[in-house]
Design a protein that fits this description.
The protein has eleven helices and twelve strands. It has helices spanning 3-6, 27-39, 58-68, 82-87, 89-106, 139-151, 176-185, 203-215, 232-240, 272-278, 285-290; strands at residues 18-22, 44-48, 72-75, 112-117, 157-162, 165-166, 189-193, 197-198, 201-202, 220-223, 230-231, 249-253.
Length: 297
């Protein structure tokens, strides 16, 4: 058995190309592996976690790429916490832009999927389409805009902009639901904005639709997010109602009274382009949540 086969998920058949999934230790990367296995996608899945390969080490990335010869790269790895990016902009640029550039340089002739964010927009109007001009208000958003430009150099690129993703991550702290649950379990009061809007979605739903886009050979930029616009406060209330045993404590706040770094008010995403191609609507978060067994989210 060859070295790549021992580290891939799925059938060891040599006829199946390898798909690299970076950030497999995170929420969306982990979901892509799980959902890809369930869908029996025609690749041997290669989950890449930080402990496997330092993506900032270009010689190592090039060596691994030459050895494994993947036929698809799905790049989820990123420094994705906006406050950390804001405090350490040089690190954010390195992890989100230069790491992406390094992968693009080795994967120039194969399909390349890049995960971006609704925070590339300024939040002034909401329901943004793929063609709306970007205007990020944060360092995190700026790095994603720059990385998108790098990825667009590739002929076979697929840029997926998504919103708040929830679910269960290997580290237990990546999904918005996990973060709220941890805070409430610790007896903390969570302050949530009543006038900051996103389109929340379960990471498993994001992963399923991204695999469908890949299987259809989609190229370009697509929005993949929940089918309804909810405030942070509304999301918190929906989750609190499922976890009454934790005695959740929520405090409403308005962006009008907020004095920290700039935050976009409404980055809701228009997903009709992906919905049309896939032939199904994006799930409304409250409906999806209501369909889940108690304790499963």
């Amino acid at each position: 058995m060859s070295w790549p086969e021992r580290h891939c998920v799925g059938s060891p058949s040599e006829s199946r190309l390898v798909a690299w999934i970076t950030g497999a230790g995170g929420l969306i990367g982990h979901a892509l592996v799980e959902v890809g296995m369930a869908m029996a996608v025609p690749w041997r899945l290669r989950p890449l976690r930080r402990s496997d390969l330092d993506l900032a080490d270009r010689p190592a990335v090039e060596a691994w790429f030459r050895q494994e010869r993947p036929g698809l790269v799905i790049h989820c790895a990123a420094l994705s916490r906006p406050p950390v990016c804001q405090a350490q902009p040089a690190l954010a640029w390195q992890q989100n832009v230069e790491v992406t550039r390094g992968l693009v340089e080795v994967a120039w002739d194969i399909p390349f999927v890049f995960f971006s964010t609704d925070l590339v927009f300024d939040g002034q109007k909401g329901w943004y389409t793929e063609d709306d001009p970007v205007r990020p208000l944060s360092v995190y958003g700026e790095t994603k805009v720059a990385a998108e430009a790098v990825v667009r150099q590739l002929r076979q690129h697929l840029i997926v902009r998504t919103s708040l993703n929830g679910g269960w991550s290997p580290t237990g702290d990546r999904g918005f639901n996990e973060q709220l649950r941890r805070a409430w379990a610790a007896g903390e009061v969570t302050t949530l904005f009543v006038d900051e809007y996103r389109c929340p979605i379960a990471a498993s739903e994001t992963a399923r639709r991204v695999w469908q886009l890949i299987l259809r050979g989609a190229v370009g930029t697509f929005h993949v997010a929940g089918g309804e616009r909810l405030s942070r406060w509304e999301v918190g209330c929906l989750l609190a109602a499922r976890w009454l045993s934790l005695k959740p404590r929520l405090q409403p706040e308005s962006l009008r009274d907020y004095s920290g770094p700039a935050r976009p008010a409404d980055t809701s995403l228009d997903c009709r382009k992906a919905e049309t191609l896939l032939g199904e609507p994006m799930p409304r978060f409250r409906d999806w949540l209501a369909a889940q067994p108690p304790g499963s989210f």
